[in-house]
Amino acid sequence: MSERAVTKAAVSVAEMAGMVGLSRARLYQLIEAGVFPPPVYDVRTRRPLYPEAVQRTCLSVRRRGCGVNGRPVVFYAARTGPAAGKRKVRRPPPRPAPPDGRIAALLAGVRGLGLSGVTPADVAAAVRDLFPHGADGEDESGVLTAVFLRLQAAPAANGAGR
Fold this sequence. Notes:
It contains seven helices and three strands; from the N terminus they run E-H-H-E-E-H-H-H-H-H. It is mostly helical. The chain has a three-stranded antiparallel β-sheet. Helix 5 (120-130) crosses helix 6. The longest helix has 14 residues, at 140-153. It starts with 9 loop residues before the first strand and ends with a helix.
């Protein structure tokens, strides 16, 4: 709300709420409590309006902190700064990256052979240990057999064998 708000011949309830720095819902609450004067209704359109004289009264209530019912009212200051009007958005935690195609295939194979508690990280670690220079030139069934035997041999260390 500015100290020198410009009044018009008539304003809507939403405009009046903006002029006094409140939401429309909060303005209606304060009208019900007798703090602000109610709008007048246009006889022809039945639309609620604030004529210029009532606008000045509303601005005076806001500036002075005293309602038209004579009771004091405290208005909270509007938020300022970069966080004004912004709420923190809670985002879900990031999902783990999906295993690449080869790790996913090996994981499916190992689980199909009975090691149900194996994770993609377990399979990837076994491939790195068994094939330090990469398993690109290796036979898929040989890689699967080696990974299965490695994971089966150390169930307590990697959670496999459940």
